[in-house]
Specification:
The protein is α+β, with helices and mostly antiparallel strands. 23% of the residues lie in helices and 39% in strands. It contains seven helices and 27 strands.
């Protein structure tokens, strides 16, 4: 026990001596200026501002006690001043001398015109609304064909086939006999019977003028266009309602354009469209959007937009390739450079450049993009300045210090 007490006393005396020597050495160095200059610490000040620490904007979580080169990037460390991000107006304050090192560049949000043009490619197709099916109204025998073939372009009223219909011969003879009786009621009833058998008013009038039965009828194309199919040959027996030929009109054609899925919101029914075909360089064909197909191509991620074009002279042929422009009307909107917009996946932000080197995030609702400009639908006012380069560093700092983003409704209320 005595030995332990002696050892404790000696250790206590040694500690007191070391403290005394250290205090004397510190007093000597401080009074003689031998410390080599003051090193900025959390309690030092620069231009009247208290420096809390230094940091690399690319790695804001790493803090340093002294200024100098960043160990991560070839750039100077940036001071963090007391009062930033707390009290007064919220925001990140950057020393103007450090803005050039950070590569900050700003732009002014201005009201301008944004072209809502969408470029796409497409192919010409038949107008499937202009289709005629050629059918006989009664059963009969094919007497004559007119050497038609699929792909032939015919005018409206062109003959397709001559049919012999025996049933019509007897009905026409009865009508002529009744007509000679001079009874209007009987004549009207007999004429109505011919109509019910499928005879046209033109054929009935022809029988009346000639006074002889005519049981051979020529079936014609109801519209001009291209023959898609023809299934009739001399000597065939056909029945009523049988499809003999199909004709598709060429007065108008469809242009099916493949529009990227990401631009689908910019397409509207009735929107203007123009096309330039490789077959006719320099010529532009105007039309309008008449349909947006309900399905999307899973491989190309495009949707099909249907445009109707007039086909004067039959120049536009199905299968031709075309470059398409949709909706070339310029619209007025608040515009900022697209590079200034920060999309986090949950919200869209811009960094506002305010007075005295203060920066603050602001939540916005972005719209269309065109020519390097983005439309701001809400959250930004005309004339406000935003950061167009280096905004991600500022956003990282704002997030680190807990600076809230200006809500959309706050911008609208000012």
């Amino acid at each position: 026990m005595k030995l332990d007490r002696t050892m404790r006393a000696r250790l206590g005396a040694a500690a007191a001596a070391i403290a005394l020597i250290g205090g004397a050495a510190g007093y000597y160095l401080g009074s003689s200026g031998g410390g080599g200059g003051e090193v900025p610490t959390a309690s030092s000040t620069t231009d009247g501002k208290e420096v809390l620490y230094y940091y690399d904007p690319m790695f804001p979580n790493q803090k340093f006690d002294k200024p100098g080169k960043s160990p991560f990037m070839d750039m100077e460390l940036v001071p963090k001043y007391a009062g930033e991000g707390g009290g007064g107006e919220p925001g990140v304050t950057i020393d103007p001398s450090a803005m050039q090192n950070l590569g900050l560049r700003t732009a002014v949000a201005r009201i301008g015109t944004l072209e809502s043009r969408v470029d796409a490619v497409g192919t010409i197709d038949f107008n499937q609304r202009e289709v005629a099916i050629v059918q006989p109204r009664a059963s009969g025998f094919v007497q004559r064909t007119y050497h038609r073939a699929p792909g032939d372009v015919i005018p409206a009223g062109a003959p397709i086939v001559d049919l012999l219909i025996p049933e019509w011969g007897g009905a026409q003879a009865e009508y002529l006999a009744v007509r000679k009786l001079g009874n209007p009621a009987y004549t009207a009833a007999a004429r109505q019977r011919l109509r019910l058998l499928g005879m046209s008013d033109g054929l009935i009038s022809s029988v009346e003028r000639s006074g002889r039965p005519n049981n051979i009828v020529t079936i014609t194309a109801p519209l001009g266009g291209a023959i898609q199919s023809i299934d009739v040959r001399p000597g065939m027996t056909v029945s009523a309602g049988q499809s003999l030929a199909q004709v598709t009109g060429l007065g108008t054609v469809w242009l099916n354009a493949a529009v990227p899925e990401a631009r689908a919101s910019e397409i509207r029914l009735g929107q203007s469209a123009s096309a330039e075909l490789t077959a006719f360089p320099g010529d532009r064909f105007s039309g309008r959007i008449i349909g947006i197909l309900p399905t999307t191509n899973a491989d190309s991620r495009t949707l099909t937009v249907r445009i109707e074009l007039r086909n004067s002279g039959g120049r536009l042929r199905p299968g031709m390739f075309a470059n398409v422009r949709l909706g070339e009307v310029a619209q007025t909107a608040i515009l900022v450079p697209t590079e200034a917009v920060i999309r986090t996946g949950q919200r869209t932000l811009v960094m506002l450049a305010e007075d005295k080197g203060r920066y603050r995030p602001a939540e916005v609702r972005a719209g269309r993009e065109s020519g390097g400009q983005t439309e701001i639908l809400a959250g930004l006012r005309d004339g406000e300045r935003v950061v167009a380069s280096g905004q991600f560093l500022l956003d990282s700092e704002a997030t680190l210090t807990g600076i809230p983003a200006r809500p959309i409704d706050e911008a609208a209320s000012k």
